Structures are given as structure tokens and as C-alpha cells.
Amino acid sequence: MARRRLGGPALAAALALVLAAGEASACARPEGWPDGAAIAGKLWTAWWRPEPAPIAVGAHFSVRFHLCGPPVGRVGVRGWMPDHRHGMNYRPEVTLNGLSGTAEGLLFHMPGRWQLILDVRGAAGREKLVAETAPE
Ligand SMILES: [Cu+2]
After folding, report:
1. What is the pLDDT of residues 99-116, one digit of tens each?
2. pLDDT tens digits along 55-73
3. Environment class of 1 (CB within 10 Å of its CB; exposed 0-12, middle 13-18, buried 19+)
4. Distance, CA 88 to ligand 1 centroid (Å)?
């Protein structure tokens, strides 16, 4: 009977995947948040919520987010309408405080399907976290 040993780099990679999955699922909703949604990536998981909620067409809103994962150097936040292939007419300003942050000055100018995109960068890498949403 042939026996294969799982060891070395393969085992390390498998363990890293399991640990990453465990970390992502362990990313709890931030304390004090009444609601919010999570986007799970490979390196980071983000909780986010709009303020005010729900998002209204043609009205400015902010997005609060909290990330679980390795240290973050920069987070870009933008909106994208995949069906129309265009973004917003506004560039939000992001304030980052450790793994938490706020993006201000977002506006979805059309009804329909929008994606909220968090472009997260840190020493560990870069990841695009995409949430599906729609203004009411
Ligand atoms: Cu559009």
C-alpha cells in the first residue's frame, strides 16, 4: 500500500489556508454596530455599513468599515456599476485608523446594481473586496 505523507511546504500551505479561513470566519461584527455586512477575502475580511442606511439614490453617504487580517497601509473605497461599466462622479475621502476606517463623500447617482469596492493594501499584499448593493 502506497502511503503519502503530507508534509513540508504542502502541509504549511494547507495549514495556512485553514488558519486563514478560521480567521475570516472569526471576524465578528464590530461592537456597537446594529447591522452591517461582511465581505470575506483571502487576506482580509471587511465589515462595512453605510451611513445613513439604507443608501438612497442621489444622496451623499459615508461608509464605515472594519477589517480583520494583517496590518493595512492604505484602503481605497469606490463605487462601481457593473452593468453600465461606470463608477461614481465623486472620489471619497478615506480616513484610516488601524484596521478601521471611514470613507466620506460617496454618492450613487443612478438606481440599480452597484458594487462597493474596498481596495486594501498592506505589507501582506493587495486585495479587492467587493460588496453587492443597491440604493433604495
Ligand atoms: Cu449606471
Report:
1. 999 999 999 999 999 999
2. 999 999 999 999 999 999 9
3. exposed
4. 9
Q: From ligand 1's centre to the CA of 41, what distance in Å?
A: 26
Separation of 36 CA from ligand 1 center, angstroms? 24
pTM: 0.80
Q: CA-to-CA distance for 77 and 65, rounded, in angstroms?
A: 10
Q: Is residue 68 part of a domain?
A: yes
Given the C-alpha cell 481596495, which residue does it identify? 119
Residue 3 belongs to a domain: no
**For residue 86, what is the domain's CATH number?**
2.60.40
Distance of CA 125 from the midpoint of ligand 1 (Å): 31
Distance (angstroms) between ligand 1 centre and the Cα of 128 equals 21
Question: Whole domain around residue 14: which residue ranges?
Answer: 8-133
The alpha carbon of 63 and the centre of ligand 1 are apart by a number of angstroms equal to 20
Cα(4)–Cα(68) distance, integer angstroms: 35
Residue 103 inside a domain? The answer is yes
